[in-house]
Amino acid sequence: xxxxxxxxxxxxxxxxxxxxxxxxxxxxxxxxxxxxxxxxxxxxxxxxxxxxxxxxxxxxxxxxxxxxxxxxxxxxxxxxxxxxxxxxxxxxxxxxxxxxxxxxxxxxxxxxxxxxxxxxxxxxxxxxxxxxxxxxxxxxxxxxxxxxxxxxxxxxxxxxxxxxxxxxxxxxxxxxxxxxxxxxxxxxxxxxxxxxxxxxxxxxxxxxxxxxxxxxxxxxxxxxxxxxxxxxxxxxxxxxxxxxxxxxxxxxxxxxxxxxxxxxxxxxxxxxxxxxxxxxxxxxxxxxxxxxxxxxxxxxxxxxxxxxxxxxxxxxxxxxxxxxxxxxxxxxxxxxxxxxxxxxxxxxxxxxxxxxxxxxxxxxxxxxxxxxxxxxxxxxxxxxxxxxxxxxxxxxxxxxxxxxxxxxxxxxxxxxxxxxxxxxxxxxxxxxxxxxxxxxxxxxxxxxxxxxxxxxxxxxxxxxxxxxxxxxxxxxxxxxxxxxxxxxxxxxxxxxxxxxxxxxxxxxxxxxxxxxxxxxxxxxxxxxxxxxxxxxxxxxxxxxxxxxxxxxxxxxxxxxxxxxxxxxxxxxxxxx
Length: 576
Description:
Layout lengths: L5 H13 L7 H16 L5 H10 L5 H12 L5 H12 L12 H12 L2 H14 L5 H13 L3 H10 L5 H13 L3 H13 L6 H14 L2 H13 L6 H13 L3 H10 L5 H13 L3 H13 L6 H14 L2 H14 L6 H13 L3 H10 L6 H14 L2 H11 L1 H4 L5 H12 L3 H13 L8 E6 L2 E6 L8 H17 L15 H9 L2 H12 L6 E5 L5 H13 L4 E4 L4 E5 L2 E2 L6
Parallel strand pairs: 3-4
Antiparallel strand pairs: 1-2, 1-3, 4-5, 5-6
Helix pairs in contact: 1-2, 2-3, 2-4, 3-4, 4-5, 4-6, 5-6, 6-7, 6-8, 7-8, 8-9, 8-10, 9-10, 10-11, 10-12, 11-12, 12-13, 12-14, 13-14, 14-15, 14-16, 15-16, 16-17, 16-18, 17-18, 18-19, 18-20, 19-20, 20-21, 20-22, 21-22, 22-23, 22-25, 25-26, 27-29
């Protein structure tokens, strides 16, 4: 009897009970196993019902416990998988089976979902004691658990000590590095994997392409693209989507278009990646054309698609169109606006200098605004010089109480105070950060040269060619000053003199990356830089002048969007 509904499952259960003990013969045992598997694992099943079946069995074997632990680890309440595991591990009852090598991967998945690395380490200890540490599947589960809990160091240690690895082992640790903001290490490990003769699968390629997208490692991404072509994998939507995203985030929108056109059976993720890429490149008209084509193909947009659409409206300054899509389009597709969607609208108002409209929009939202929305408005007050509003928001909103773990609010408030000349209050923000052990995220810029990623922070002197970089930077400054460059010292919110402020501006991370790129690349080569924070106004004007003087195309991806500098102009139209 095939089971597809709980009604059929209950009928089979009733039949088994009427026939005597469900475990009485082979046929009964098979039917009971089928019943239990359906109730525990099928989307149409019932976990509570499965648990009740388990409690009625006289001699349940480990399959029943493992299956239920697996089901609980995938459920909204994975703590129950831990509880059931403890029953197996601790209960001194000959009827209850002991955990085996199949139990641990499931319970580790529960630890991962709970993001409880301490509990995961306890399980690791039990695995060592039980002798299952040599099992490849158990080790793969350990790597996945540590990576999912944000401990990529321990994940790599497990991987490094494995006696036998497969493609899943490599992929898990590469994916963990990417997820935990260590993409350069992920790319290096992928290269080692390829040199070791291990054939990557689709999941590996998607992971390393994410790493390439994060770092701007275009040459590695192109190598992956060639591998994908050789294996004819680009037609598959998941790999195609990763390639589209990689090329878009590396500043190669033409290649993103090519992969998109080659991808067969485009799903919502492929469409969204293309729309998002076009939006971030300032190609808002084309992004909206793709959105309309997507709908005409019968692909229903999801929440991420609408974030991409609203980003296109934001980057083009289309406030009216953005509001239309927020209200009408999302209503049509029965999508509930998220905080990200509302954030795009607030950013639109702020960029246009409509701070009152932004504030009223936040207050009238049907969901509670988060700290990011209020920060966006405060940032707008700083940029547009609305001192009165910023001081009122600082008092009324109480940003510091909204997220005490994040230094962003402290830094922004300190900058608002500094912009208003209130150095005493700025010093208080710095002191509060120190007391709470919060460290400001440093601005970093990455540039790829000959397949290697070089990362810079502001004032960085660690690079092996630091002397040459700074000498080139001094040359750049002299040349752009002759073209009218005037350092925007108002960007430096420190109580120091203007010469020191100008020096700090000159040593911003993207300028160091630019200097290195000019040294290491041939004339006419496009320079691509990835920055983790929003570009400042001074760096923006500096890049425009360098692109004109040195006849170079400079592509910078900051936290918000792309900037194409060419001939003294930027694709963003000075709106970012």
